[in-house]
Design a protein that fits this description.
Length: 366
């Protein structure tokens, strides 16, 4: 019996440690808080498989700052078993469930239309029932009248685009022109679209990355095996719904998906400055080899390519820095350089444009 109790306690402690370790961590930038958000989530109140309280519990375990339950307005496959004339109900349940936790719940809904314009999420709404409008243009107007931030969902979805390439239609142009479209999903569920990132650049749309979860987060994204849910990093002035809204309209976001960071250069640069710090440890003995510590302060595994004028003593030009760890490299300076040693890297898993990755540069004393 005593052995059984010891084993049981061990299992419980192990499970608690796993929950603590799974919380997603990214540092704040110099000017903003880095908030971890998921703006595309479903429950049984549309076509998901779980009750809203499960979505809250998953988000808490993942250490998120904010979520939005985005139930389909038009698509209600469970309505025979779960009739709910009030389309705000899942939000209300989640809001109540989140009270004991430090988790923000954003009132939202998914406007589900054929192409064009396809599906869209409206965040920061007041009443989802008022979005039940047949004409898609009028539905977007109804959402915007409530102050909504609206983004285009899975624009590369093969059910909407046979070739997986997003097409910005005349209707999308009209929505953009009339302030009815503000963002685009570059990451959705298990897909990433460089073409959507290019549209974000070309059209001035906010980069969005979401889980679009319908089943269980742990199953879909293999959390027990070391995976992670796709999230939006939002660079906000403070930790509030209003500040998240301001940041989204300003476009201050980076998506994290499958260990890839995706965003515009002006927002990726300060994030990488906070994630990766580089410091000199001095020369290795009497040699001209400089010891340099590269420290990763995030949950992302960094993949760097050396593009500086120096070679390394032990490492090749491709360097991997594991999450929350420090890697020491030895730089062959070859000669005494009074003004310091300049190191430059391409961050291969930080995408800032179509076929374009981020670049970082450091100058170190010997």
């Amino acid at each position: 019996m005593r052995i059984f109790l010891f084993l049981l306690v061990g299992v419980i402690i192990g499970a608690q440690a796993q929950d603590q370790n799974r919380a997603i961590e990214f540092p704040n930038t110099k000017d903003y808080l880095t908030l971890k958000c998921d703006f595309h989530i479903h429950t049984v109140f549309s076509d998901g498989s779980v009750w809203p309280n499960i979505r809250v519990d998953e988000a808490v375990r993942d250490g998120l700052d904010a979520i939005a339950l985005t139930e389909h307005i038009e698509y209600q496959p469970h309505q025979d078993d779960l009739p709910h004339p009030d389309r705000n109900r899942s939000y209300e349940i989640a809001l109540e469930q989140a009270k004991p936790y430090d988790l923000l719940i954003i009132h939202a809904s998914e406007i589900t239309k054929d192409m064009p314009p396809g599906h869209a999420n409206a965040l920061f709404i007041q009443d989802a029932n008022k979005l039940i409008v047949e004409d898609p243009y009028e539905a977007y107007k109804a959402a915007r009248a409530q102050g909504a931030f609206i983004f285009w969902n899975h624009p590369n979805w093969v059910n909407q685009q046979d070739n997986g390439i997003p097409v910005f239609s005349d209707l999308h142009e009209k929505l953009l022109r009339e302030d009815l479209l503000h963002g685009i999903e570059v990451v959705n569920d298990i897909t990433y679209s460089e073409y959507a990132l290019k549209l974000a650049e070309d059209k001035g749309l906010t980069v969005i990355g979401t889980s679009d979860i319908h089943g269980l987060i742990d199953w879909q994204f293999k959390i027990p095996e070391g995976g992670h849910r796709p999230i939006n990093l939002v660079f906000a002035k403070d930790r509030s719904v209003s500040s998240i809204k301001e940041a989204l309209f300003a476009g201050r976001t980076v998506a994290w998906y499958n260990n890839i960071l995706v965003g515009k250069e002006e927002h990726m640069k300060p994030l990488l400055e906070s994630i990766l710090t580089v410091s000199s440890n001095g020369m290795m003995g009497p040699s001209s080899i400089l010891e340099v510590d590269l420290t990763n302060h995030s949950d992302a595994r960094l993949i760097l390519k050396n593009v500086s004028g120096y070679d390394f003593y032990k490492d090749a030009d491709i360097i991997e820095i594991l999450p929350h760890s420090t890697k020491r490299i030895e730089v062959l300076t070859e000669r005494v350089v009074e003004e310091g040693v300049s190191l430059s890297f391409d961050v291969l898993n930080a995408v800032i444009g179509y076929k374009k990755t981020a670049h970082v540069h450091y100058t170190l004393d010997k």
